[in-house]
Amino acid sequence: MATVATVPVRRDRARFGPILVVDDDALFRELVTTILKRAGYRAVEAATGEEGLDAAERERPEVVVLDVHLPGLSGHEVCRRLRERHDGPPVLFVSGERIEAYDRVAGLLVGGDDYLVKPFAPDEMLARVRALIRRAREATPAGLTSNERNLVRLLREGLGAGEIAERLGETPIAVRDRVDEVLTKLGV
Is the same domain home to 61 and 151? Predict the structure, then answer.
């Protein structure tokens, strides 16, 4: 089951969606999640490829830190499925087993955006996550966050403020305020 790390988020990173960490090694997930939390990010964890896809659909992460070797669906297959969605998040592959140049190239060819070999320095992982977020935001019209894009998707489905509030666990007034913020950001 995917879990959400609950830690106060630094104000400058509060506007980011979560970082999804998908790895079958519980200690590695805990380590990466701790690094991300200390840097001010919110993190979501998943132990399998299937859980990772579910969490990606539900949470709309900014970046996915994805192990190549997973039970069930491989990291490559998870990446491929994330890429089927037009707005799939950037993927940072990590691996301690698949470390040869051809392994890294394969990860990039299946749609990964970056590749990091375990073990790695925490600062290097954070720099790569920041770079992926920056590039994704530069490519996103009006710099909408993943949460804002999700809100727009729900509006596009024809849902009203009350229905959206139910889905997101918010009040209709909060949803209306968020819609106003998105419209302001879009210059509408």
Answer: no
Q: Given the structure tokens 């089951």, which residue do they identify?
A: 1
- The number of domains in the chain is 2
3-state secondary structure 89-129: CCEEEEECCCCCHHHHHHHHHCCCCEEEECCCCHHHHHHHH
> Within the chain, where are the H helices?
26-38, 49-59, 75-84, 101-109, 122-139, 146-156, 161-168, 172-186
Which domain does 167 fall in, by range?
142-186
Question: Any idea what the CATH number is for the domain that residue 61 is in?
Answer: 3.40.50.2300
pLDDT in tens, 3-24: 444 434 444 554 567 999 999 9
Give the whole-angstrom CA distance, residue 52 versus residue 108: 19
- Residue 28: band (very low, low, confident or very high) from pLDDT cuts 50, 70, 90: very high
> Quick one: DSSP state of residue 18?
P
- DSSP 3-state assignment of 88? coil
Per-residue confidence at 180, pLDDT binned at 50, 70, 90? confident
Q: What are phi and psi of 46, to 5 degrees?
A: -145, 145
